[in-house]
Inverse folding.
């Protein structure tokens, strides 16, 4: 093979890899509506948020938020929980002391109404330590 042929093959491989990367990025934008759960788990007898957190590496506060658990101390065998989410969907953040919902929206360059809607916030009030989901592509969360 000549140098030109090797360079051409190398360039062709780079173009193909770039095309795959573009397809992957597009696929991340096409996350289905609703919260996109990547992995589900069925609660076993004796499980707690702590044991589930340890097993899957997902913080308990995120498990509570992802699964909309109003009484997280009461898990029951057979209960289905989302334990992993698609990172391309967005991210979870903790509200810092003195931070407002407007500041959070500005920090992530997102529409305040989308963040409020996704997180079921009615009065635009957030509190320190509250876990919010910030969607990457808000079109699925309006």
């Amino acid at each position: 093979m000549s140098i030109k042929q090797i360079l051409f093959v190398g360039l062709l491989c780079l173009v193909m890899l770039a095309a795959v990367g573009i397809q992957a990025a597009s696929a991340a934008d096409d996350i289905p509506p609703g919260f996109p759960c990547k992995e589900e788990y069925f609660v076993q007898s004796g499980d707690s948020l702590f044991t589930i957190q340890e097993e899957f590496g997902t913080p308990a506060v995120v498990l509570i938020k992802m699964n909309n658990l109003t009484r997280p101390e009461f898990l029951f065998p057979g209960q289905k929980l989302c334990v992993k989410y698609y990172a391309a969907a967005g991210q979870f953040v903790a509200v810092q002391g003195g931070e407002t919902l407007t500041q959070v929206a500005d920090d992530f360059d997102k529409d305040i109404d989308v963040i409020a809607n996704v997180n079921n916030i009615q009065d635009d009030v957030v509190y320190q330590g509250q876990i919010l989901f910030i969607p990457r592509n808000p079109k699925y969360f309006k």
